[in-house]
Structure formats: C-alpha cells, structure tokens
Amino acid sequence: MKRELTKQEINHLYRYVNDKGVKYFDVQVELVDHIAAKIEERFHQNPAQSEAKIFDETLAAFAKNGFRQVVREKEKQVGRQYRRYFWQNFKSFFSWPKVFFTAVLTWILFEFLQRTNKSTLLTINDSILLPTLGIGFMYGMFLFFRNLNMPRKLSFTAYTSSGGAGIINAHFVVRAIIKYTLLDGAHYPFVAAFLLVLFFLMMVAALQAHEKLVSYGRTLYPQAFA
Fold it and tell me: Which residue ranges run through the membrane (predicted)?
C-alpha cells in the first residue's frame, strides 16, 4: 500500500514553506502539493530508506532551488492575468452595448466643456485635488481592511496595479488634459472630452480587473475569505 502523508506531516510542510518566506496561501498550497507528491513518490521508490531522511533530503532539494523564485513567478503570472482582465474590460467599452454608454458619456462631456467658460474651467482645474484625494483614500482603506480581515493572504488579492494611489494621482492627468486642450490658448472640447472619457474608462477597467482577480482567488481558495 502506498504511503501517504498524514495531516500532521502536511501541516509541517505548510509551516516549513511559510518559514521560508512564502506568505501567499495559494503559493503555499501549490508548493506543499508538489513537495508532498515528491516525498510520497520517494517513499514508494525507497521503502527501506529512513522516512525522516527522505523528508529532509526532499525539503533541502526544494529549498536549494529557492522559494522566492516561485513566489516571483506567481506574482508575474498574476500580473499577466490582471493585464488580460484589464484589456478585456477596457475593450468591452467599445463593443455593443457598452459602446453606446461610451458615446453618450463623451457627447455629454463635450457639450458641457463646449458651453463652459474659461473661469469655470480654471475653478474646476484648481479644485479637483480634494475629491480625488478623498475617493482614492476611501478606496485604499477599503482594500486595506478587506485584506486585513482575510485569514490568509493570496497573491490575487495582494496584487494592486492602481488602487487608491492611482485614483489619488488621477488629478494630475485630468489637469494636464484640461490645461493643454481647453486652457493656455487652446480650445478643443471634443479632444478634451474624448481623452477624459478614455482615462475614466481606463481607471474603471483597472478597478474591475483587480476585483476580478479577487473573485478568481475567492473561487479557487474560499477558505482564505472565511
């Protein structure tokens, strides 16, 4: 009969990879599954060899290859998944039926900017910092407390490409668009409306991509959200 690891031995492997700096639960699961399978394989192939020695040699072999590299590869994988979600969400705003929303939003903003005088634009340009600071801070706190309340940390939920800091810094982009398309002697309300809507949709797509990562992590590892 094939020797399988006990629950106590599996827990020992979890403690081992955690002590080696692997803090993401999903990466721990993958590593422990791989290490356990290797140990059980060696148990079967070398029944006369000391089980303690097989444990030590197998763990030493994995530690030699380095767990940090595994974590970095996982982070790169999550980053690629995030970018895939981002472009899927962003492109959806230019396909039916969302393209109708994009067109209407651009038209409304164009009409507003075309009819707004320069003094009002200057006021808007000078007063957008506080709203973006407030929204960015609230969203950042939401992410912080959501991750804090998770019993286990996942690479999916730890990944943040924009988050609260991105929203806080959005006012720089908005001010630059207003300055170079509507102020300083320029008056291109349609260009301004198009660029502002484009940037807004990119921010929305970024936030949606992050939430999709969280949802994906919840599906695979619901125990991390218990």
Answer: 93-110, 122-144, 156-178, 190-209
Domain chopping of the chain, boundaries? 7-65, 75-225
* Beta-carbon count within 10 A of 195 CB: 19
Tokens of 6: 């006990």
Question: Distance (Å, rounded) from C-alpha 203 to C-alpha 195?
Answer: 12
For the chain, report the end-to-end CA distance as a whole number of angstroms. Answer: 36
Contact 160, 79 (CB under 8 A): no
Average pLDDT over residues 100-113: 96
CA angle 54, 60, 63 (to 5 degrees): 140
With CA atoms as reference, report the closest residue to 174 among 152, 190, 154, 197: 197
Binning pLDDT at 50, 70 and 90, where does residue 161 land? low
Q: Which DSSP category does 183 fall into?
A: S
Question: CB count, 10 Å around CB of 188?
Answer: 13
The DSSP secondary structure of 64-119, one letter per residue, reads HH-HHHHHHHHHHHHHHHHHHHHHHHHHHTTSTTHHHHHHHHHHHHHHHHHHS-HH
Q: What is the pTM of this model?
A: 0.87
Q: Where are the alpha helices (DSSP H) in the chain?
A: 7-19, 25-45, 51-65, 67-92, 98-115, 118-127, 129-148, 155-158, 163-168, 170-182, 189-220
Mean pLDDT of 141-145: 87
What is the number of other CB atoms lying within 10 angstroms of the CB of residue 24? 26
